[in-house]
Amino acid sequence: MEPIPSKIGRYVVEELVGVGAMGRIYKALDPDIRRTVAIKLISTKLMSGADRADYVRRFRREAEAAARCVHANIVTIYDFAVHEGEPFLAMEFVSGTSLRQMLDERPALGVGEAIGIMLQVLDALACMHGQGVIHQDIKPANIMLTPRKLVKVGDFGVSRISNTETTTTSFATAGTPAYMSPEQCRGGAIDGRSDLFAAGTTLYEMVAGQRAYSGRNVTEVSHRIQNDRLPLLPAEVRAAVPRLQLVLERATEKDPADRFVNAMDMALALRQVLDSLGDEATRLQAAERAARGPPPGSTESSDSPSQASSSRAASSQFPSPTTSPPPSPHATTAFVSPSQASTGALFDVDTLKAVQERLRTYVGPIAAVLVRSANQRSRSAEDFIAELVLSVSDAAERERFRREVEPLVRSHRAPAAGTTSLGSRSVASALPEQELERARTALTEFVGPIARVLVRQVAARVSTVEALWQGLAAHVESPAERASFLQRRPPR
Fold this sequence. Notes:
Layout: E1 7-8, E2 11-20, E3 23-30, E4 35-42, H1 49-67, E5 77-83, E6 86-92, E7 97-98, H2 99-105, H3 111-130, E8 133-134, E9 143-145, E10 151-153, E11 160-161, H4 169-172, H5 182-186, H6 192-208, H7 218-227, H8 235-240, H9 242-251, H10 263-292, H11 307-315, H12 338-343, H13 349-363, H14 367-377, H15 381-389, H16 395-410, H17 433-447, H18 451-459, H19 465-473, H20 479-486
Antiparallel strand pairs: 1-2, 2-3, 3-4, 4-6, 5-6, 7-9, 8-11, 9-10
């Protein structure tokens, strides 16, 4: 074992805190300003002279780029220097635990807690990618959590700058095998979407309690990453939060072009899953607990927290876009009742029952909640079907379900008089349909097909056209594109 140096550069070493494939990490003190720092000392001893010089040159340039990534969820880089011929970074010292340590102690996190962590990781990635930096080694060991649940993404030791000359194969494939993207495994060109692949496999591990891709050796893991589909989440998770599987599958597509466009695109999809967690899954599990009662011999009451409700409580420790309403203690209805249909009456009760029965064969008892929610939120039959189709995880089954329900929906009977097409969430009906379509068309150019969903959600919260456009503009990431989008709004 290498001896611990007393000093690295001007920094006074206090202790060794970690050892990795690329070097060692020490806790140290900056004597000039009395600041505790983390020192990552990179080892280049096994490299040839030419390779070593090239690596140090690249590492310096990448350290400079990473230092520009100033963000609350990114470990701050203070300094780059060379100690006895070896490059090192002086970084913010994070007091807390790594996600790896957390998962070693309790392998599966609640869905809400896991998404709360990943949303912060994606915020960090959005900042990095905006500066042209690709992390290239997103994994649980490089995600730190402070005692106050603030996420810090660290370890830029293998990161690289996008749009630079092609890296060598050994450098391009840097990273941890189980979390590498297919293009990293091949030694091919990479961009920010490689980080999104790693984010997807990390989130899968948080929720499933096991790695998405594993094997007896690096070759086997690499083969599975390049050829195998992402495994399904546990059945109970898919039943409670069916949309999460779809988000993970898109993040881990083999072709980068099929993944999310950027980190904010993936974050938006996860926020929608997080919104549904309190609104749908928690209500269903509360109903199932009430129906089952406490387990034999247990002193637990029927309204004790389930995994889903615990997840939602845990998620409140993390940043989230909205606060979901508390679960209803009376959500025990197996079918959509007439009273429920009248509060969200796009379709009559018989049609909803028929659709629910079809969906139940694909997703189980969660179908009742999904149908009720889609009926309340949808503006049209097209929206209604599209939302339900997303709850079916298998692509072939999604298409089969679509073919089964389209005739049912087309032949539906109109709801009883006195109800609205949007139910209790019909605030948006005050806005002319042509204005909604105008905004939808404009937004699609900037965010893609998700524009339809965003327009529906924002329209439900506002009462003026100007407020609609301003609300939608918040979903356009680039300031320049946001300004371009707002230029298309109608005159005030």
